[in-house]
Amino acid sequence: MVIVHDPRQRELSPLLPLLVAADPARVVAWRHGQAISAAHFLADVRAVAAFLPDATAAVNLCEDRYAFLVAFCAVVLRGQTNLLPSSRAPQAVDEVMRAHPGCHALGEQRLDPPPPNYRQLPSFDALPPAQVEAGWPAIPADQVVAIGYTSGSTGVPGANRKTWGSFHASNAGNLARLHATVGDRFEVVATVPPQHMYGMEMSVLLPLLGNVGVHTGRPFFPGDVAAALATVPQPRVLVTTPVHLRALIESGIGLPPIAAMVSATAPLPIELARAAEQRFDAPLLEVFGSTETCVFASRRPTVDEDWSLYDDVILHPQPDGTAIEAPQLGAPVTLADIVSLSGGGRRFRLCGRHADMLEIAGKRASLADLTRRLLAIPGVRDGVVFQHGDGDALGVHRIAALVVAPGLDEQVILDALRRAIDPLFLPRPLKRVDALPRNETGKLPRAALLDLLQARD
Which GO molecular function annotation, any one, does this entry have (predicted)? Predict the structure, then answer.
């Protein structure tokens, strides 16, 4: 099957490679301990592209990272758009499919019941596919290749369109930052799913658009992470979250040598960052971005509290947030984050989110800072401070806290908080729980927090 894009689109938009570095032997992925070359990968992509139905879009439900990579590129090669729900829960998938009539769904697993128009991918465990000689594929820069849906942690999930040109631009910033830290070639092991935009950037775009190989599993438990790292050569980069970092440290497990760690999806307490660097003898980079913007800044929190912007990114502080200009954005995007600029506008310090800012009796605080101080209490393993209710007659919102702290009671935690924050901002109620309702990327959907707060012990 020959795949041809609309010729008019080719005239209007420059073409960008689907896979950079046209070396057929370049290792794109590590699967079951075996290296997958670019030629092998592209043969799998073309085979799956021929297998797909005619449609405008496809819900990519692949859990195996190699299957996701192949399906993602096959969908793009057919001129279709990858739809990335905030989760693989049937309700979330159904909502996305209803918003895109005529789309189909695909995955590597047999689902019962399957979503409408579901196709199960052929197995990739057979003999390597025939590597038919063909031109290196290129994609129009303005082709919408993915629509990512936000997690809903701060509201209703929203759709975010990504073109192939915008992905090339955002990946350039991440690649430059990692090149400066670990060198030109490295291997990635990621604990985050590829459907999430952070996972997309760090475990899908890097191997497609850089001289990077990715481990195709998604290790969850500390022992799985160590085993995955051991199957790829050095230098190794661990892409993860604060939740996974804490679990790795508390497990006491040893890891093979790693060149760097990358963290995102949730605030990274400085104490955790220091412990991770000391335990694993590698720099820990924290990246800053969103589903709407992709990553546009980074920092090493053990060295600097300020964030450094990627090249050609400009911030415009607003009364209710910050407008971002970036190469990957067709127009400025305003986020709710409040920042203060320094370094001639090339650096910034995060002051909180507009929706997180609290004002009581003329005093101000942010939920993020209150959560940071909660997590700094010895014995607190996890926790969050958040607003609940619609506010009183004066518009003042009540704040609550959920805390994972075996061995501490609520009063001890409140006493420690009272020494660290203004008593006006003490969370009431503060409830101890066995675990926070984090989703697969470590985020805390507001609805789940409220349900847990109201649940009876």
Answer: ligase activity
